[in-house]
């Protein structure tokens, strides 16, 4: 038998039929849905009189449109958004699909909710009408985003017509230095390989730098792989991943647990498996990273300078730099450190988990949110919110001047009423700094939760290591 | 999806790299439960200023470009969110094809599944088409032969490729779900075998929700 990558093993074990040289019919173990990329899929099913044969492998979460005001019960004021939420419920009831509804205590962002309750298990294929489904690679599950027509296809067949990807290996050696996180790691890597550096590939992350990363830190890494164009991201499940899963899966016990462990032990790339593309880097050289432009690959280390126009030979890249700087109102060659900010947003499927909030508190300490800065914390889920409140994180952040809000996607894509006004500059723990993403004319700087916390208490983009005493101020 | 073997019309250039689906179809247009009205949202921030007035300097607002059928775009077109609304909006506006040196994967799959033809050409050929559009200062006449996989303008003729499956889908106008449902017996057999081997993945969402209730 020839050597295989982890990706190839996962695809092979879920292939119902080979359709042609490039496409297979792929079985999907878990399908997540939200309120805004599923309505037309359900409508399509109804039009053709098709049902959902295996509803128990599907789950829905109201996440993108949901208001985050601190009120109970939550009310969706926008009529169109309310209709989407009601429509999702109607469709889930009709097809017997489990739902985390608007006022469910465990509601939250789909990519935070599903792993925290043990729905993500190594070796699964997981899909969702949302591009950040790559998150689940952190547990050795193949996750990827799909469009609405494909949502309809999965509902009707529990399979997907799937175009096979190529294999890319990203090896990260060394250890992250103090003050840096997996968010800095992934921004660093994307800035090197580019926003299209992994198009057509499923990326497998490996290397010594991963050993020290917690599962939540790995979620952040895999979550943002899509920002390099990756069709999926994988990390071979190790003890860290398996302990995380078993702690959340009380149904996996006894003989079933032995079988599961035996299966999960096979989930790795064979030593001589072939990767069509390789990239290697050293985590020990990494520093806190911040984006300066309008694409996640336009990022630099906090102490570095924005590239100059002259440094680009490629006319397309040079034009991109000029277009991006015009939007972000920055100049080529300048540093980001000291740039005043108006807003801080901490949350999203990238960085809205409990460890992220703990990191924020560590940096904030006894400091206060700087005058003139609005700082919002939106936990990734009801469970994250409850835990942060139990640990006293919420009270301390509120005392420091942060807004403590209800869970949801919120200002990551600003599809609810959390929207920034034009010209506002935001330090954000999210995944996309596209033009208009957080509000028309609003400027987003992507960074880690620790860096966002540093920005909140200083009112400007700041090297968090200076607050931590890791380097001299 | 309907049958398509040829596309002919006008092409124009949009010189922006990594043009994301937030820009193709901003979030305020994603609040529907059907596919209607998406032409209004297409490229909204580029087409309209903050007061909602058409921007005179954006090409689609200039009369000769009002009926652009084919977009010649920068690399990694359609990156970002998985929103298929971006594809529906382009089609409702009248676009039939996009030419670029690369496309984001989810967008590619969304577009081709809906019959919006995406053509991948090497960057130098894309640049040549953009140059032709610049030189002309007006939309370029373009003819795309899907059957023989060629793009032809007055100055250039380029070959492109696509998977055999997508080729068939365009030429025959296939219903993908209908085709996949023909595999129902294989899907059922696979499911049973898969669950026997890995009982911990069976009914995973339902069992989790029941446990949490």
Share of β-strand residues of chain A? 15-25%
Strand-pairing-aware structural class of chain A: alpha/beta
Biggest protein-protein contact in the assembly: A-B, 93 and 68 residues
The largest β sheet of chain A comes out as: 5 strands, parallel
- Beta content of chain B comes to 15-25%
Shape of chain B: globular
How do the strands line up in the largest sheet of chain B? 4-3-2-1-5-6-7
Key descriptive features of the protein:
heterodimer, A: 473 residues, alpha/beta, 5-stranded parallel β-sheet, 17 helices, 17% strand, globular, B: 213 residues, 7-stranded mixed β-sheet, 7 strands, 15% strand
Could you explain the architecture of this structure?
The complex is a heterodimer of chains A (473) and B (213). With 473 residues, chain A is an alpha/beta fold. Helices cover 33% and strands 17% of the residues of chain A. Chain A has 17 helices and 19 strands. Chain A has helices spanning 6-12, 39-48, 79-95, 110-116, 148-157, 182-193, 208-211, 215-223, 239-248, 254-264, 315-328, 348-351, 354-364, 382-390, 393-400, 449-458, 464-467, and strands spanning 15-18, 23-27, 30-33, 58-61, 99-100, 125-128, 142-145, 159-163, 166-173, 201-206, 232-234, 277-282, 289-291, 299-301, 343-346, 374-377, 403-404, 425-428, 443-446. In chain A, β4, α3 (79-95) and β5 (99-100) form a beta-alpha-beta unit. Chain A is globular and about 55 Å long. The relative contact order of chain A is 0.13. The model of chain A has no long low-confidence stretch (mean pLDDT 97). Chain B is an alpha/beta fold and 213 residues long. Helix content of chain B is 37%, strand content 15%. Chain B has nine helices and seven strands, in the order βααβαβαβαβββαααα. Chain B has helices spanning 21-24, 44-47, 85-93, 105-114, 123-136, 164-172, 176-181, 184-197, 204-212; strands at residues 6-14, 70-73, 97-100, 117-120, 140-145, 150-152, 157-159. Chain B has a seven-stranded mixed β-sheet with strand order 4-3-2-1-5-6-7. Chain B is globular. At the A-B interface, β2, α2, α3, α5 and β8 of A face α4, α7, α8 and α9 of B.
């Amino acid at each position: 038998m020839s050597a295989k990558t982890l990706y190839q093993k996962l695809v092979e074990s879920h292939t119902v039929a080979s359709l042609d040289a490039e496409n297979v019919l792929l079985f999907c173990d878990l399908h997540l849905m939200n309120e805004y990329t599923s309505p037309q899929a359900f409508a399509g099913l109804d039009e053709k009189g098709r049902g959902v044969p295996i509803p128990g492998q599907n789950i829905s979460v109201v996440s993108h449109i949901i208001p985050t005001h601190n009120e109970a019960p939550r009310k969706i004021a926008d009529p169109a958004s309310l209709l989407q939420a009601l429509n999702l419920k109607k469709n889930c009831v009709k097809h017997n699909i489990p739902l985390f509804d608007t006022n469910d205590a465990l509601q939250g962002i789909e990519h935070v909710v599903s792993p925290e309750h043990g729905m993500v298990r190594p070796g699964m294929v997981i899909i969702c009408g949302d591009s950040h489904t790559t998150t689940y690679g952190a547990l050795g599950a193949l996750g990827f985003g799909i469009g609405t027509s494909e949502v309809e296809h999965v509902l009707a067949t529990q399979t997907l017509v799937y175009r096979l990807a190529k294999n890319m290996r990203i090896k990260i050696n060394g250890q992250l230095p103090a003050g840096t996180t997996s968010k800095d790691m992934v921004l660093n890597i994307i800035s090197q390989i580019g926003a299209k550096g992994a198009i057509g590939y499923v990326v497998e992350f490996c290397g010594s730098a991963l050993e020290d990363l917690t599962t939540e830190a790995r979620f952040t890494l895999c979550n943002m792989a899509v920002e390099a164009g990756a069709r999926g991201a994988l990390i071979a499940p190790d003890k860290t991943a398996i302990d995380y899963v078993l702690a959340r899966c009380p149904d996996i016990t006894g003989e079933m647990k032995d079988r599961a462990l035996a299966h999960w032990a096979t989930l790795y790339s064979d030593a001589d498996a072939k990767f069509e593309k390789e990239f290697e880097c050293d985590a020990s050289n990494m520093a806190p990273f911040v984006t300066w432009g309008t694409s996640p690959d336009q990022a630099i280390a906090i102490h570095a300078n924005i590239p100059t126009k002259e440094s680009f030979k490629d006319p397309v890249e040079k034009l991109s730099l000029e277009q991006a700087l015009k939007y972000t109102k920055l100049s080529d060659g300048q540093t980001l450190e000291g740039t005043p900010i108006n807003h801080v947003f901490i949350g999203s499927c990238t960085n809205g988990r409990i460890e992220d909030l703990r990191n924020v508190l560590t940096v904030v300490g006894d400091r206060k949110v700087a005058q003139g800065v609005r700082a919002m914390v939106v936990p990734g889920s009801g469970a994250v919110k409850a835990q942060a409140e139990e640990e006293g994180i919420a009270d301390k952040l509120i005392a420091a001047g942060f807004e403590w809000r209800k869970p949801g996607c919120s200002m990551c894509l600003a599809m609810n009423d959390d929207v920034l006004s034009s010209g506002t500059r935001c330090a954000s723990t999210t995944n996309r700094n596209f033009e208009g993403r957080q509000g028309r004319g609003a400027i987003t700087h992507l960074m880690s939760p620790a860096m966002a916390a540093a920005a909140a208490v200083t009112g400007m983009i700041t090297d968090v290591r200076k607050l931590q005493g890791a380097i001299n101020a | 999806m309907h049958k398509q073997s040829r596309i002919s019309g006008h092409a124009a250039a949009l010189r922006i790299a990594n043009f994301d689906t937030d820009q193709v179809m901003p979030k305020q247009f994603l609040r529907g439960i059907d596919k209607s009205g998406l032409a209004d949202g297409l490229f909204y921030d580029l087409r309209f200023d903050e007061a909602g007035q058409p921007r005179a300097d954006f090409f689609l607002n200039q009369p000769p470009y009002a009926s652009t059928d084919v977009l010649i775009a920068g690399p990694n077109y359609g990156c970002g969110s998985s929103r298929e609304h971006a594809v529906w909006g382009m089609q409702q506006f009248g676009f039939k094809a996009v030419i670029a040196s690369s496309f984001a994967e989810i967008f590619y799959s969304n577009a081709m599944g809906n019959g919006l033809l995406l053509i991948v050409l090497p960057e130098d050929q894309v640049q040549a088409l953009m140059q032709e559009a610049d030189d002309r200062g007006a939309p370029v006449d373009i003819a795309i032969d899907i059957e023989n996989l060629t793009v032809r303008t007055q100055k250039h003729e380029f070959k492109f490729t696509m998977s055999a499956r997508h080729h068939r889908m365009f030429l025959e106008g296939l219903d993908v779900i209908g085709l996949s449902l023909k595999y129902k017996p294989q899907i059922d057999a696979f499911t049973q075998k898969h669950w026997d081997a890995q009982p911990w993945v069976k009914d995973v969402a339902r069992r989790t929700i029941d446990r949490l209730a």
